Amino acid sequence: MFIDGHNDLVLHRWRGEPTNHMDLDAAREAGFAGGFFAIYVPSPNVPDPTEIPYALPLPDTIPFEEASRIADELYRELCALPVRRATSTADFRDGDVAAIVHLEGAEPVASDLSNLDDWYERGVRSIGLTWSRPNAFAEGVPFRFPSSADTGPGLTAAGRELVRACNRLGILVDLSHLNSSGFWDVARISDAPLVATHSNAHALCAASRNLADDQLDAIRDSGGVVGVNFAVTFLREDGMQIPDSPITEIVRHVDYLAERMGIDHVAFGPDFDGSVVPDALGGVAGLPKLSDALRDAGYDDDAIAKITHANWLRVLDATWSERG
Ligand SMILES: [Zn+2]
User: Fold this and answer.
1) By Cβ atoms counted within 10 A, which residue in 28, 100, 160, 188 is the most buried?
2) pLDDT per position as a tens digit, 204-252
């Protein structure tokens, strides 16, 4: 069974683009049980970096009204998919696909949190405070290579309130895309396991989006998890967007995270349909190849089960239950 920490299938459907990675029939056959389906209100005109080093500017903020309108459309797109919505870990079953409704960027949440309960009722169980841009709650990291994530201010007062409210409701707070000041604010405030749904080890790939060792340690100490992102620009040591990159680039980050944090804190966050992943993997249909690569690298069945799904289930259980 595979559970994925991040995919952008909904955005592709909303834009009317063909999906590259997330064929749901192939997914069922490959043992893909679902994961975090992002509702991401896109920033216009964000270029792909074409050379190293790169330092893209932070995109503008997106006003609440505009973000709400687009998020509603994206939500309807998600509801039209032939998948169940996951609000309990029992929703993840072999042969079936379940979607955790995930807001990637909290722009569709009013800064006074007046519509947070509505989103909860609609099934939202995970919120990334930011995408790589500023909003009313926090500031994301700009896309830069090489760069640390120490790029701007921490959470606003509204951001701190949002983290507390998510803790109360049992909504997972996702740290991917957040700058390091924001990360440490959440680490101080949150009483749930810390989670980065789709981020890698900065020690191996010095992109601003990746996590420094002290951040990995904090996630480990909280009982949380890091979903390894399959985007080659966040995997490769040179940060280059080269599709012809081997699957072992993913294993390299799994190795590092497992060594640094322990096997209980490593999972997958593929970024399918949101990024360029190794051609050798392709999309969801290629996930069994990744299990084989982990086996070749010396991981036993128990370790592979933790990485592919069990760690996600543990953290979701801890975050969603005993609350709400
Ligand atoms: Zn993302």
Assistant:
1) 100
2) 999 999 999 999 999 999 999 999 999 999 999 999 999 999 999 999 9
Ligand 1 centre to CA of 227 (Å) is 11
Q: Looking at this protein, which amino acid is placed at residue 120?
A: Y
Q: Which residues contact 141 (CB under 8 A, 6 or more apart)?
A: 132, 147, 149, 151, 152, 177, 178, 179, 208, 209
Among 128, 139, 129, smallest CA distance to 58 is for: 139
CA distance 54 to 143: 8
| 127 Cα–ligand 1 center, Å | 12
Q: Are 125 and 172 in contact (CB under 8 A)?
A: yes
CA of 72 to the centre of ligand 1 (A): 19
Which of helix, strand or coil describes residue 161? helix
Cα dihedral across residues 255, 260, 261, 264: positive or negative: positive
Report the predicted TM-score, pTM, of the whole model to 2 decimal places.
0.97
Return phi, psi of residue 282, to 5°: 75, -125
How far does the centroid of ligand 1 lie from the alpha carbon of residue 177, in Å?
Answer: 7
The DSSP secondary structure of 100-157, one letter per residue, reads EEEEESSTTS-TT-TTHHHHHHTTEEEEES-SSSB-SS-BBPP-EES--S--S----H
Tell me the sheet residues that pair with 4.
35
**Ligand 1 centroid distance, CA of 209 (Å):** 9
Spacing, Cα 92 to ligand 1 middle (Å): 22
H/E element, 250: helix 248-261
DSSP 8-state code for residue 67: H
- End-to-end Cα spacing for the chain: 27
Does residue 151 contact residue 134 with C-beta atoms inside 8 Å?
A: no
| pLDDT tens, residue by residue, 60-69 | 999 999 999 9
135 CB contacts (<8 Å, ≥6 apart)?
A: 61, 62, 105, 106, 107, 129
